[in-house]
Structures are given as structure tokens and as C-alpha cells.
Amino acid sequence: MTALPTNSTARDITRLGRPKSVSARVLRERIIVGTLAVAASFSILVTTTIIVVLARETWGFFQFDEVSLGEFFGSTEWNPLLGAEKHFGIWPLISGTLLVTAIAASFALPIGLISAVYLSEYASPKVRATLKPSLEILAGVPTVVYGFFALTVITPLLQKISPAFGNYNAMSAGLATGIMILPIVCSMSEDALRAVPRSLRDGAFALGGTRFDVSVKVVVPAALSGIVAAFLLAISRAVGETMIVALAAGGIAQITANPSAEVQTMTAYMVQIFLGDAPAFGVEYKSSYAVASMLFVMTFVLTMIGQYILRRFREEYD
Amino acid sequence: MSAPRSAASRLLANRVFLVTCLVATNVAMLVLAVLLISIFWQGWDTLSWKFITSFASRKPTDAGIMAPLMGSVWVCSICGLVALPLGVGTAVFLEEFAKKTRFTRVVQTNIMNLAGVPSIVYGILGLTAFARMFGAFGTNVEEAITLGNEDSLLFLRLPFGSSVLAGGLTLMLVILPVVIISTQEALRAVPGSLRAGAFALGATRWQTVWGITLPAAIPGIMTGAILSMSRAIGESAPLLVLGGLLLVFNTPENLMSDFAILPLQIYNWAGRPQDAFHEIAASAIIVQLAVLLLFNGIAVFIRQKLQKPLQ
């Protein structure tokens, strides 16, 4: 190697040291690839361990005499900590989770999508440059802060509107969760919209479309798979959200669609148990693992559907 | 576009939609403003240097956040030290070395799924795998195997119990998928011509990665790493499962110390009925948000100053 390095790439290569024998290089290469492959396998190990731990503990839960699979999916009562007779029917917890998620979604999905359309199709670069960082800040706010916000700002506001709202209610927790998932919806939808090639917009403008026609009838349909994937991810975040509901939604497990009612979600129940309201290794304690399994399955299915939609319905251009 | 409509009505629709857009976007900004103002309103008066340097107390006027603040620093440092090498290694393997086999496709899908797992589920995993080690060393703290002197920095105990080390490793599980995905994106943004140039000069795959691809991707990797660390600082549900709400009166001394973290301290105070506790919760939130803004600021700085266009 006598040639003088002429650009940074060549300089970088020569900096790597004197030439080694081919076999030494091949050996080193193998060792490095092996190490990296082990690192990559770690994620598989994590998933397997989650599934094994949840399955084993859930199995242990169903071994207790008080519980049966039929009651778990058939009963509409969940009162492991109160009352003489314990009931383990998962539906009240699922109902609470779905109510909070539905409120969050009906707030965040429309606003998030419309903001994304605005950012990607209407806003000037200058407006974008101020709005994007604000959204990133919103995305980085810890969820416990949203819980505090729900408790000290949203709930008092709701109580001013209607006295039906108690100190804990599904509406307040749902709105706070909606604020939490709003940045996810907005930034992921915006990425999908911006990935639509310019030529589609140009074509629609050439046909005489207004900016509204172009955005809503051409760009949004073209990016639909990405938008739906964003929606599903945001919903699965809302389902798994813990600190907001633990602070603001309350602790009564009941089946209701009333947003002013106090509800308990699956995650809030788990918090209650792990904060030490039940002796470890009892049936109540083990029930939290069964709830965790349900939660894991629900979010897993949502993620899988999202990935399937992204793969199957992606519109390929160019 | 079915029946042709008049130009006037289409322009009207455009106008109406633009207004809707502005309203929707402003709702998001308004929420952020109300959030910040309400927290500063509640917490500014009780925020003081004494508040930051004091330990926990039953009386809200004497309480401080020294222990949770240092606990957060310890836990997040451990989390970062483990998650970053592991995550970057995984991403490098998937992007630069692995052929598109069945194995890599499974790993890739699996990482996407892990990113969607609720953080509280990771708490259960951490509790079982790190705090109790599957019961392999007994379930009693007195039965635990100890290595080294209890006062020294290198003290170790098996199982880990709800210690700083177990907390850091649990948080590592939560942010690992985020680190992997952001590193992969940074590596994908490095143009293939740079790699081709290195290969043409006879570099091996690893030499190319170490000498060319990684340096080019460093700004992107750093940004992703900082944003995932800011996620780790705010994460509280998994550590609540791991250790509950501990009242801790000293800062961690070694990897086996008990710990409190800032978001859980906020949760603890926010959950109480008295207004005095809500005020100090708001003060703690201001500290938390300040740390967060610092991290985001560094990320934005790196993105804008160091990221040179490579095309």
C-alpha cells in the first residue's frame, strides 16, 4: 500500500492497522459474528421467558380450588380482595380497559390524524420546525405526569361541567391516555403520509384538485396501511398504559360504558396487587399473572395485526 | 370523485378543512401549554435547593427527592450500560451481517412485538428473572448467597432482590427494542456506496462496520440512544412491580442497595389526598421535566450539528 490516501474512506481503511494474515482475519470475523448473533438471540430469549413465566404462573393460578377457566371467562364479577366469596371473572377488568381505551382513541385518533395531514400537506417548513419539537416533548413526558395532570386538572374541570363525575372516573383517565398517545398517532401517521411519492400529489393537482382533494382523496388513501398501523400501535399503548389509570381511573372493577363511572383496568389491578394489597403466593396474588397473560395476548394480537396490515396492504410506488 | 362539483364548493371544502386542521393542531399545543402551566403553578413555590437535597419525610414541608433522584441516576446508568451495547450489537448483526434467513426474519418480527409489550409485563419478567432468579437460590432474603463485603462497592447477592441492579436490568428489557429499532434506522440511512468502497479496498465485513458504517451512523445512533434513555427515566410501572413503593432514606451505595426512583416518588405523592403532597409532587415533576428537556435538547443538538448529509 504505497498510494497516498486521497479521501476519508481510504484514510479510514489504512487506519485500521497493518495487514493481517487471511486466516487470522477470518477467525476474528467469525468470533465477532458469533458474538453479535448471541446478542441478537437475546431478544428471542426475552420473549420466550415472558411467555414461559406468564404461562407457568397462570397455570398455577388455575390450580387453586376457588378458580376455574369457566368462571374466569364466564363470570362478570371480579372481587378477589373484598367480600366473603371471591369471584374471578375477567370481564369487568377488560370492560374497564376497553372503556378507557375507547375514550383515549376517540380523542387521539382523529386529532392525531388531522394534525398529521396538516403537518405533512399544509404546514410551511417554518411551522413544522416549531410543531415537531413540541410534539416530541409531549411524547417524552413520563406517563406518571399525565396521571398527575388527570387527577389535578382534568378531573376538577370535568366536575365543573357535570357533578356526576367523582374523584376517580374513566373519562379523566381516558383523556389523559389520549393525550399520551396523540404524539404517537401524529408522528407515525405523518411518516406514512410523507412517504407517499410527490408524483401522486402532482398528478392530482394537475387534474385540478384543491389541496383538500389531494390530501384526503389521494394522499391519505395511499398511506392508509401506515396510518392504520399507527392507530393499532397507539391503541395497544393505551391498553397497556398503567400509571395514568392507576392514579385517575379508580379501583372498582365493574362492567359499564358510563364515562363518569369509576373503573378498574387490567393494569390498575396489577398495580394494586404488586403494591402489596395481597399476601404473595395467595390466589389473589397469582390472579395478577392471569390478568398479565390476558394483557400480553391482547397487545400481542394488536401488534401482529398492525404488522400484517403493513406488510400485506402496503402500496408500492416507484 | 363522483359527480363533478362546482369549483366554489370545492374551495369551500378546502377552506373548512384547513380550519379543522388548525383547530386540531392547536388542541395538541394547547394541551402541552396547559400541562406545563398547571404543573409550574402548583409546584414552583415548593421547589428549592433544600427540596432537591433532602430525603423522604412524613411531613410534606420537610420531604425531598435526593434518594429518588440518585436512585434514578443509578438505575438508568445500569440500564444504559447494558442496553446500548446489546441493542447496537443486535442492530449491527441484523443490518450488516445476517443474510435474510428465516432466523433473522423471526428475530425482526420478535423485536417489533417486544416493542409493543406493555412495560408492566416487563416488570413481571424482571421480578421473576432478576429479583427472584426463578427461585433457584431460595425465596428468603436470609438464604441468599452473598459475595463480598456488604459495605463495599462490589457487594453482590444472589438472587438480586429489588436492588438497583435488578431495577436497571428490568428497565433495560423495556428500552432494548427501542434502541435496536432506532439503531437499525440509523444504519439503514448510511449509503451503500460507502460500504462498497470499503469492500473494494479489501476490508472485511467487520472492518467495514467498525471503520466506516458505525462512524457514519453515530449521530443517528446517539440520538436514538438519548431518546430511549429519556424513556427509561420516565418509566415507572415495571419498577413498581419489582419493588413496590419503598421509602428509602439514603442514596444507593452499591449494586445491591434498595432504591426509589423519581417517577415512583411522584406517583406516591400524587396518589395522596392532601394538597400539600400534590404541590411537592408538582415540584418533583418540574425536576423530572428539566432532566427530560436536557436530554431532548442534547438529542436535537446532535441531530442538527453532527448529522452531515452523506449522499
Secondary structure blueprint with pairings:
The complex is a heterodimer of chains A (about 325) and B (about 300).
Chain A: H1 8-15, H2 22-62, H3 69-74, H4 91-122, H5 125-140, H6 143-161, H7 170-194, H8 198-206, H9 211-222, H10 224-240, H11 243-248, H12 266-277, H13 283-312
Helix pairs in contact in A: 2-13, 4-7, 4-10, 5-7, 6-7, 7-10, 8-9, 10-13, 12-13
Chain B: H1 7-43, H2 49-53, H3 66-97, H4 102-116, H5 119-131, E1 145-147, E2 156-158, H6 164-188, H7 192-200, H8 205-234, H9 237-243, H10 262-270, H11 275-305
Antiparallel strand pairs in B: 1-2
Helix pairs in contact in B: 1-11, 3-6, 3-8, 3-10, 4-6, 5-6, 5-9, 6-8, 6-9, 7-8, 8-11, 10-11
Structural key phrases:
heterodimer; A: mainly alpha; MetI-like fold; 2 domains; disordered N terminus; B: 311 residues; two-stranded antiparallel sheet
Describe this structure as you would to a colleague.
The complex is a heterodimer of chains A (318) and B (311). By secondary structure, chain A is mainly alpha-helical. Chain A folds into two domains: 20-63; 91-312, Orthogonal Bundle (MetI-like fold), CATH 1.10.3720. Chain A is built from 13 helices and no strands. Chain A has helices at residues 8-15, 22-62, 69-74, 91-122, 125-140, 143-161, 170-194, 198-206, 211-222, 224-240, 243-248, 266-277, 283-312. In chain A, helix 5 (125-140) crosses helix 7 (170-194), helix 6 crosses helix 7 and helix 10 runs antiparallel to helix 13 (283-312). Chain A starts with 7 loop residues before the first helix and ends in a 6-residue tail after the last helix. Residues 1-6 of chain A have low confidence and may be disordered. Chain B is mostly helical and 311 residues long. Chain B folds into two domains: 1-43; 49-305, MetI-like fold. Chain B has helices at residues 7-43, 49-53, 66-97, 102-116, 119-131, 164-188, 192-200, 205-234, 237-243, 262-270, 275-305, and strands at 145-147, 156-158. In chain B, strands 1-2 form a two-stranded antiparallel sheet. In chain B, helix 4 packs across helix 6 and helix 5 crosses helix 6 (164-188). The relative contact order of chain B is 0.15. At the A-B interface, helix 1, helix 2, helix 4, helix 5 and helix 6 of A face helix 1, helix 3, helix 4, helix 5 and helix 6 of B.
